[in-house]
Design a protein that fits this description.
With about 180 residues, the protein is mainly α. The chain is built from 9 helices and no strands. α6 packs antiparallel against α8. The longest helix has about 40 residues. The termini are close together.
Length: about 180
């Protein structure tokens, strides 16, 4: 990744920092911020030195939205998280969106494990994870509605994970790995 491409990502880093702080405090990401990340990613794709061109930005936005949308339907992610990942996809393209999604999942898992351990709820986390896994494997028998309801009912920690934090860390890791 060139120095110009890194410089072009400064607004994305700024928006992700703001999203992480707000999500940490309020456990929500404002629509104005997620929409700004999508719009600026697509608009920026027309400028020289941008990481993703216009078609990649649109496809990245779609991929960044579609992959976490499944987790949103299951109650595992909030709508702001999905829209924020769509914005990341608009900036980084479809491959970048997938890489960030996977890295954020790992970072999020580590944070949840630490948070559960601090709250002495590791056994609940493992039990709920096993129940969800069994339900997902048997989705054809149970139906998608039952799996979604189980996902929403299985809470292992007191407060939901502020997913903008793992997204920010994941973007930094993915960008750092490509430089």
């Amino acid at each position: 990744m060139s120095a110009l491409q890194l410089f072009s990502l400064v607004p994305l880093f700024g928006m992700l920092c703001i999203a992480a702080v707000i999500d940490w405090r309020e456990r929500r990401i404002p629509n104005w911020l997620t929409l700004l990340s999508v719009a600026s990613g697509i608009a920026g794709s027309f400028l020289a030195g941008h990481v993703a061109g216009p078609s990649e930005a649109l496809l990245g936005m779609i991929v960044g939205f579609a992959i976490p949308f499944v987790l949103f339907v299951m109650g595992a992610l909030g709508g702001g998280d999905v829209k924020l990942l769509a914005g990341v996809g608009a900036w980084l393209g479809p491959v970048g969106a997938v890489k960030v999604f996977l890295a954020a999942a790992v970072v999020g898992m580590i944070i949840v494990l630490i948070q559960s351990a601090k709250q002495k709820r590791l056994s609940a986390l493992f039990r709920n994870s096993a129940v969800l896994t069994v339900n997902l494997v048997n989705i054809d028998i149970l139906g998608a509605d039952a799996v979604c309801e189980t996902g929403k009912a299985c809470r292992s920690i007191e407060r939901p994970l502020p997913y903008a934090v793992p997204i920010l860390v994941a973007v930094l890791l993915v960008i750092g790995a490509t430089t």
